[in-house]
Amino acid sequence: MRISCFLAFLPVVASVFVPPNQHSDHEHLDRRALPKRWFQDEEHSARSLFKRATDDGVDYPTVGSAEWRARYPRDRNFDVDALPQEWVDALAEAVEAGRIPDIPRTTMPTADGNPVYPPQFNPVSINVCSTTYKCVHPEDIWDAPAGVFSSSFDDGPYPTSGRLIEFLAAHNVRTTHFMIGVHILAHPDEFMDAFEGDNDLAVHTWSHLRMTTLDNLNVLGQLGWTMQVIHDSTGGRVPRYWRPPYGDSDNRVRAIAKEVFGMDTVIWNQDPQDWRLAAGQTTAQAIHAQIEGWLQGPKTTGLMVLQHEITDGTVDIFMSIFPLIAQNGWEFESVASCVNDGRSYQNAEGSQSDDVVLADILALPDDDSDPSTTDSEGDPSETAGPNPTNTKLAPTLSATHAPLAPTPDSNPQSTGSRNVPSLAVQAWTVSLGLGAAVLLL
């Protein structure tokens, strides 16, 4: 009986302990096809019934026009009572079906700290799985495939985006732009340059807020309005990926993005904190040396480096390290092109592809899903057990991922091995003691 208790306890130990400096804490990405697709195979008879097109055939207002701007919130704030009813209904249906975990909003005791959950909610538990606290959910994307430098830029578009886009085009490569909705309204020309340059357009929310601090309707609007302006401005393409500002997400926010809008969450595994350059808190030389060190390291796990297109300085840093990527044997790809099946949008292969399928931004119903797998009931402090959104894989803690330094995209207290790794080591130590005691008995 005592041996059985010890053996039953081993999965809990394994799920909590994360050895330092290894990537075995979660599955690494391989290229893989999605089980559900918006398109038919080349030989399918249905293809002859529909003309392939670079847009969905809908007549949208000209990007940058007054009519175009009038379709969206005028500034960083929006009225949740004025959200499109179909979005609200889709959210309500997902909540009623048990697909949106009932996790409370976080608070920010200090402006430069981490978001905090109520005491009974463990941020690294399987029921919460906060990315701020380096919980790696199996459906989130943190790493690129082996040998791949996956390129993306946050916070655009900005006036400086033009130089970046021209540089990418000159070298015949593309990137994934995680764009802020209000910045799209402010810089429509740079937005269109990125799109027409065949770069991937993804969501970085409407106004760059910490998502776990928001209620469900505000999360809905932050994602929905950004998706909508991208959809309406790209011939009807539906964004497939989003990245949370400050890397701040959890099972509730993740579920709204996926269940209501069909988007996958993208984080990162290396952060040079290039945004600090503008504030004089670092130097271009220091950032360059840091990235060069990663490029000279092992290729077993691909690089997903967080970069920004916010100033000439951050763009210059990318330009300076770009030649080193190939020189060190890395394959350069955009984030969207190197994960899953390589398609950048939910209803189109890419920004300039001719396979756009007419679709709105709400997710397709998933007939294969089981509502019970997203049940959030149970002890919110548990750190092992069935995954509330995926019964095949449980979330893990990352000792190697260091999201997250202060603004604009990082969290200050989760850098390096602070907080969670020490928690994991403590749990491991306690577990070893309990296990030894059982064996001695």
TrEMBL record:
UniProt keyword list: Carbohydrate metabolism, Cell membrane, Cell wall biogenesis/degradation, Chitin degradation, Cobalt, Glycoprotein, GPI-anchor, Hydrolase, Lipoprotein, Membrane, Polysaccharide degradation, Signal
Cofactor(s) annotated in UniProt: Co(2+)
GO MF, any single term: chitin deacetylase activity
PANTHER family the UniProt entry points to: CHITIN DEACETYLASE 3, GLYCOSYL TRANSFERASE-RELATED
UniProt xrefs under Pfam families: Polysacc_deac_1 (PF01522)
Acidic residues bias: start-end ranges: 365-380
Bias type Polar residues, positions: 384-395, 408-419
Entry membrane topology: Lipid-anchor; GPI-anchor
Region of interest: Disordered: 364-395, 400-419
InterPro entries, per the entry: Glyco_hydro/deAcase_b/a-brl (IPR011330), NODB_dom (IPR002509), Polysacc_deacetylase_ArnD (IPR050248)
Region forming the signal peptide: 1-15
Residue ranges occupied by any NodB homology domain in the UniProt entry: 147-333
GO cellular component terms given for this protein: plasma membrane; side of membrane
Annotated SUPFAM superfamilies: Glycoside hydrolase/deacetylase
Domain of life: Eukaryota
Catalytic activity entry: [(1->4)-N-acetyl-beta-D-glucosaminyl](n) + n H2O = chitosan + n acetate
Subcellular location: Cell membrane
This protein's name: chitin deacetylase
One record GO biological process: cell wall organization
Enzyme Commission identifier(s): 3.5.1.41
Keyword Chloroplast: no
